[in-house]
Design goal:
With 75 residues, the chain is mainly alpha-helical. Helices cover 53% and strands 5% of the residues. It contains 4 helices and 2 strands; from the N terminus they run H-E-H-H-H-E. The radius of gyration is 12 Å and the shape is globular.
Length: 75
């Protein structure tokens, strides 16, 4: 499966934060990659800019879209 668009990340991202626990950002990447059944190749896919992976980018957009929930994510 290809890495979904950032809109597809928003609901599972917020659902994960529903318990209001604090999560390490690295754990969120793993949780969402598992949720979407991404392969190692999917997880390693780089944006055309070469600066970050699609997964990191999509999670970043999901975090930005719901700024008030950023307090539950540690870098």
């Amino acid at each position: 499966m290809a890495v979904p668009g950032y809109q597809d990340f928003m609901y599972p991202f917020l659902k994960q934060l529903e318990d209001r626990k604090e999560y390490n950002l690295q754990n969120i990447y793993i949780i969402l990659a598992t949720h979407f059944k991404l392969t190692e190749e999917d997880v390693a896919e780089i944006l055309p800019s070469g600066k970050q992976t699609l997964l990191v980018n999509r999670v970043g957009w999901a975090r930005t879209g719901k700024g008030k929930n950023r307090r539950f994510i540690r870098r």
